[in-house]
Each structure stands twice: as C-alpha cells, then as structure tokens.
Specification:
By secondary structure, the protein is of the alpha/beta class. The chain has two domains: 32-113 and 229-333, Periplasmic binding protein-like II (D-Maltodextrin-Binding Protein, domain 2); 115-218, D-Maltodextrin-Binding Protein, domain 2, CATH 3.40.190.10. It starts with 5 loop residues before the first helix and ends in a 23-residue tail after the last helix. The strands form two sheets. Strands 2-1-3-10-4 form a five-stranded mixed sheet, sandwiched between helices. A five-stranded mixed sheet has the order 7-6-8-5-9, with helices on both faces. It contains 14 helices and ten strands. Strand 6 (146-149), helix 7 (155-164) and strand 7 (176-179) form a beta-alpha-beta unit.
C-alpha cells in the first residue's frame, strides 16, 4: 500500500541520501602540493625515504616532491620561497633566525648528529690512538694533519672545532682543511693524499670498514655526553607558510610522524628502504651505520629547549655562531602545535 505522495517520496530520498553520506566516511581531502628540499642523500634522512615508500604523504592528500639542494642551499630555497619545506640542521636554523631570516621548525628530525672524526689508520697506529684515551689526547693527534670535509662552517666543521677544543692545539692554525665530496675524500684517504676526515654516517664507517681510517671522535658513539639531548635537524618552513596553510604543515608533519613510528616499530624493513637509496654498500658497513643512525631517530617529534640549547652550544663553540648571536629562549623558532 502506498502511504506517501510525491512530497513524501522526495523526503524519503533525502533521508536516504543523508544516511548514505553519514556512513560513507569523510570526503577525500583536497590534494595539496609542496616541495621538500634535502641538503644531501644520507642516512640522517631515512624518515623521508620511508615516508615516500609508505606513501605517507600521498594518502594524506599531499603530493610532495623531494629534491636535493646541496648544503645551505636547501635552507636558502625555503627563504626564497622556491620550496615549502626543508630538513636542515638546527644550527642552520638558529643562524638564519638571529640574522633576521625567520624560519620555523615544525617537527624534530633527529636527536643526535651523526658526525665522526676519522684519522688515517697508519697515523692512528703509529700514535697508539685508542678510544680509551682522553678526548684531548686524541684531538692533539690531529696536529699538522690534512683533513677533508664537505664544506666550511657546516656541522662536521663545527664538530671538528668542538672536538679540537678538548685538547691543546688550534683548529685554525694546526690543521689543514680541504673541501671534498665524501666519495672523493674516501679515495683520497685510501691513497694517503689526506690524513683524515670529518664526515657524517655512513662515510665515516665506510672508511673504517675499508681499512683506511680509525674513528677518534664520534657524536653518535657517545663521545660528547654533554651534548645530549641534541636537536640535530628539523622539518622547517617559513612561519607564513604554516600561518596561511596550516593544513599543509599538518599533513607534512603527520606523514613524517608515520615514518618515524614505522622505523622504530620495524627497523629491518626501514633499513631495507634506506638501502635502496644508498646502494653498493657492503652489509657490515651498512649495518654499523644504520645502528648508529637508529639511535638518533627521535621517538617524539616535539622540540625540547634542552636539545636546542645544546645545538646552540655546539654552533657557538664550533664557530658557527658569534657570542652576541646566542639566544636565551628558543620559543620563536619552533612550534609543537602540529605534533599529535
């Protein structure tokens, strides 16, 4: 029996449509696009590689392009609005801020820098250098040596200066520095054209496993406990980017957070993803470097003042910041509002 007329039929259809909409789940988020600049391809950026493989950003409606802009160029690309995000070192962020170039850290990218100082093996053997010696004695073994690093006043250079201050020599007068890309510096170390290097993982471990060098100072191996906790790098954007497009920054952080959680839950699967990005490395070298890297992947993406303070101390002692540039508070350079 028909119990409703045309108006009733329309109402029933409207009710059905409402129920369908309520049970179908939220409408797909409108797709957004952005670019992330990385300063290098290295172990430190494993959360980015994992997020890409897991499609952590894609499934959140963020079409994220990743590009390599070497060194400080990645931060400059954010400042010039060429890209929306970078994963840059905290001292770089601090220096930009105190020099009037305001940037904002929206998620912690690492709890420990991965820099190690390597001395050529024949020099270390001749001097009887061991990891049980006081740091100052190890630092003094660099007197008169030629060391390679990627760039002046970058983090490896800062760590080298910080290390040398543990001893009695002068890092500017008693050590000769040459700029080389990592693979070139490894070859030069093997052919005895240089005496050592200041590098990030995995290049320091590569030098050891190839029999070229000995690690005489290492942040990831715990030689500088006074620098823990240490805010090594951060997902960084312009403040205006997150003010004008908060959903963009939220999706960026959420995707990064998923990758970090995956790394800690499934480290072997994360290692397999990383190995695709850095191939042609023997298992022993890779496993050594990955184990050290894993210890520096943050469990929480929240920024802590203590970690930022230690990063500033390294930048100050390492000659990357001037005394008058030291900040007493870091509230202006970070936010935790996107961390769930």
């Amino acid at each position: 029996m028909r119990i409703y007329g045309r108006r009733g039929a329309v109402s029933a259809l409207a009710i059905a449509a409402t129920v369908t909409a309520a049970t179908a789940g939220p409408a797909p988020a409108q797709e957004m696009e952005a670019t992330l600049a990385l300063p290098a391809t290295t172990f430190a950026f494993v959360p980015v590689y994992v997020a890409e493989d897991l499609e952590s950003w894609t499934k959140r409606g963020l079409k994220l392009k990743t590009t390599i802009i070497v060194g400080i160029g990645s931060m400059n690309a954010v400042l010039s609005r060429s890209v929306e995000f970078t994963l840059s070192s905290t001292p770089t962020l601090l220096r930009a801020h105190v020099r009037g170039q305001k940037v904002l850290a929206i998620a912690s990218g690492g709890d420990r820098t991965s820099v190690e100082i390597v001395l050529r093996k024949d020099h270390a053997d001749a001097a009887g250098i061991t990891d049980r010696m006081p740091l100052g004695q190890r630092a003094d073994s660099l007197k008169g040596k030629k060391l390679a690093l990627q760039g002046l006043n970058a983090i490896p250079h800062g760590v080298l200066r910080y290390f040398v201050k543990k001893g009695t020599i002068d890092s500017e007068r008693d050590i000769q520095l040459v700029q080389m890309q990592p693979e070139a510096s490894l070859a030069a170390l093997g052919s005895k054209q240089i005496d050592g290097l200041a590098e990030v993982l995995p290049y320091s471990t590569m030098s050891v496993h190839r029999g070229y060098g000995v690690v005489i100072a290492s942040v990831p191996r715990g030689d500088f406990p006074e620098l823990e906790p240490y805010a090594s790098n951060a997902v960084t954007a312009l403040p205006s980017t997150c003010e004008q497009k908060p959903e963009l920054c939220q999706r960026m952080v959420d995707g990064f957070a998923e990758a970090v959680a995956f790394i800690h839950a499934k480290p072997q699967e994360a290692a397999a993803i990383l190995k695709k990005r850095i191939p042609n490395m023997d298992d022993a070298t890779f496993n050594d470097a990955f184990k050290l890297t894993l210890a520096g992947i943050p469990k929480s993406l929240k920024h802590e003042e203590a970690g930022l303070r230690n990063a500033q101390e390294l930048a100050f002692v390492g000659g990357m910041m001037k005394p008058e540039e030291k900040m007493s508070s870091f509230e202006a350079i970070y936010t935790n509002k996107f961390i769930k």
